[in-house]
TrEMBL record:
InterPro entries: ModA, ModA/WtpA. It comes from Winkia neuii BV029A5. Residues 24-45 are annotated as: Disordered. GO terms for molecular function: metal ion binding; molybdate ion binding. Molybdate binds at residues 59, 87, 189, 207. Residues 1-25 form the signal peptide. Belongs to the bacterial solute-binding protein ModA family. The keyword Transmembrane does not apply. PROSITE patterns: PROKAR_LIPOPROTEIN. This is Molybdate ABC transporter, periplasmic molybdate-binding protein.
Length: 273
């Protein structure tokens, strides 16, 4: 009897241990599930990069405004602040000490200047763009084409030489053999477009993306414009206060999602260099 009783106790103890083991395993599984859920939620919210300051060419205003909102949405708590201006002005501002985490120019020349100044890290291409001529809706001045005769006595506004769109305008005009005397030379493409939209100018030369974004102008292709492609460049600044945030935003612009939004606004694919 004693042996049977002892055997019974052993069986009860074994059963208790088995139940305890099952309970421990179940608890571990529950903890693992909670951990996975927490990690998934954090992944869905991305990372809080804090304040990210971006200096970007004026022609990027519409596209980058949307890109900034999407980046903030994917990284809860992050705030992207933009400064849009002519690339040459942005380069000068950074050299004079203005804070920026990343610089997006509308050409290679101005990025090279920033590099020569010692203000940026290595740069890369993130988009390309070409020029078109625009006239006010309805073309009240009857501008027919981009040629010396067609522009004679017309009020033409362009970007100044030194500004990316101004450098490209000069190159296209030289290739096409077109001579003109502009009534105004602007410091960024936005101001150039605005003078055509308001009717202050009969015609203007802007990027294709700017023409696409406006419902107040009509665009005309220009000879040789497809041969003068502005290579838009990006680099982190050496004085960046938020390099992680700047790099994350640059990576987003270069991602498939970022490139898709740029394409929607008329920008073409970056170069391979």
């Amino acid at each position: 009897m004693l042996r049977k009783f002892g055997t019974g106790l052993a069986l009860v103890a074994a059963a208790a241990m088995a139940l305890s083991g099952c309970s421990s395993t179940d608890n571990q599984k529950a903890d693992d599930a909670k951990s996975e859920t927490s990690q998934s939620a954090q992944s869905d919210q991305g990372k809080n990069y804090g304040q990210v300051t971006i200096f970007a060419a004026k022609s990027l205003t519409n596209a980058f405004t949307e890109l900034g909102k999407e980046f903030e949405k994917q990284n809860k708590g992050t705030k992207v602040t933009f400064s849009f201006d002519g690339s040459q002005n942005l380069v000068d501002q950074i050299h004079q000490g203005s804070p920026a985490d990343a610089l997006f120019t509308a050409d290679q020349k101005n990025m090279d200047k920033a590099d020569k100044n010692g203000d940026v890290e290595a740069n890369k291409s993130y988009a390309t763009n070409t020029l078109v001529m625009v006239v006010p809706k309805g073309n009240p001045a009857g501008v027919k084409e981009f040629s010396t005769n067609a522009l004679k006595d017309k009020k033409l506004v362009i970007c100044a030489v030194g500004v990316p769109c101004g450098n490209a305008t000069k190159e296209v005009a030289d290739m096409a053999g077109v001579k003109f005397t502009p009534v105004s030379e602007e410091q960024n493409v936005g101001d150039t477009l605005a003078k055509v939209e308001t009717g202050e100018a009969d015609a203007g030369i802007v990027y294709r993306t700017d023409a696409m974004a406006s419902d107040k102008v009509e665009a005309m292709d220009m000879p040789h414009a497809d041969m003068v492609v502005n290579d838009y460049r990006v680099a982190l600044t050496k004085s960046a206060k938020n390099k992680d945030g700047g790099k994350a935003f640059v990576d987003y612009i270069l991602s498939d999602a970022g490139q898709k939004i740029l394409k929607k606004y008329g920008f073409t694919a970056p170069t391979n260099k």
